[in-house]
């Protein structure tokens, strides 16, 4: 069962420095976790949200998911506003951002929405592609859930003899 993201808010249409229309859209993650009782929803108080810019026509000439889609309405989910995917935070090559005090901060993580089946073997490829399209190269040394799991399994095998 794939995780989903739902569209919960959006800004008015804005224009970037190249004159392209976009909206800042807020997405919330609806995540499923494995429990002794089967797959269960993560409680909403522990759910993550993030905002991303969704373009009417991105640099590939396509409309970004979420730009024209309706807001999610739990009373009528058939209207749309929900997508297969997840909110991912990963280690990336360091970059500078303006800070609230007028200075500049150097950061090494980035968070965005990945629109893909989280249960698919190709999900990591979608993560890399999404981060790349947002201008952030993944840090090869950064740990992912799958690399941590593989490392733990290796340690278990070593300890177990």
Index terms:
161 residues; alpha+beta; five-stranded antiparallel beta sheet; two-stranded antiparallel ribbon; 2 helices
How would you characterize this protein structure?
The mean pLDDT is 86. The chain has 161 residues and is of the alpha+beta class. It has one domain (4-160). Strand 4 and strand 5 form a beta hairpin. Helix content is 17%, strand content 38%. Strands 1, 2, 3, 6 and 7 form a five-stranded antiparallel β-sheet that branches. Strands 4-5 form a two-stranded antiparallel ribbon. It is built from two helices and nine strands.
Could you say which overall geometry the principal axes of the C-alpha atoms support? globular
Helix content: 10-25%
| Quaternary form | single chain
- Cα-atom radius of gyration: 18 Å
The span between the termini is: 35 Å
Major sheet: size, sense and barrel closure? 5 strands, antiparallel
Estimate the mean pLDDT confidence: 86
- DSSP helix count? 2
Summing up helix and strand content along with how strands pair, one would put the structural category as alpha+beta
Domain count: 1
Strand proportion: 35-45%
Counted beta strands: 9
Order of helices and strands: EEEEEEEEEHH
Poorly predicted runs are none
């Amino acid at each position: 069962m794939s995780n989903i993201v739902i569209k919960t808010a959006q800004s008015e249409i804005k224009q970037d420095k190249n004159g392209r229309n976009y909206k800042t859209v807020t997405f919330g993650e609806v995540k499923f976790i494995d429990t002794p009782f089967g797959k269960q929803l993560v409680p909403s108080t522990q759910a993550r949200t993030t905002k991303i810019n969704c373009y009417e026509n991105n640099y590939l000439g396509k409309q970004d998911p979420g730009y024209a889609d309706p807001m999610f309405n739990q009373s009528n989910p058939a209207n749309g506003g929900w997508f297969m995917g997840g909110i991912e935070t990963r280690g990336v090559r360091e970059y500078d951002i303006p800070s609230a005090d007028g200075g500049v901060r150097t950061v090494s993580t980035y968070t965005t929405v990945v629109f893909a089946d989280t249960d698919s073997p190709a999900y990591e490829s979608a993560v890399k592609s999404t981060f790349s399209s947002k201008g952030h190269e993944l840090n090869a040394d950064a740990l992912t859930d799958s690399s941590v799991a593989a490392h733990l399994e290796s340690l278990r095998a070593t300890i177990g003899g």
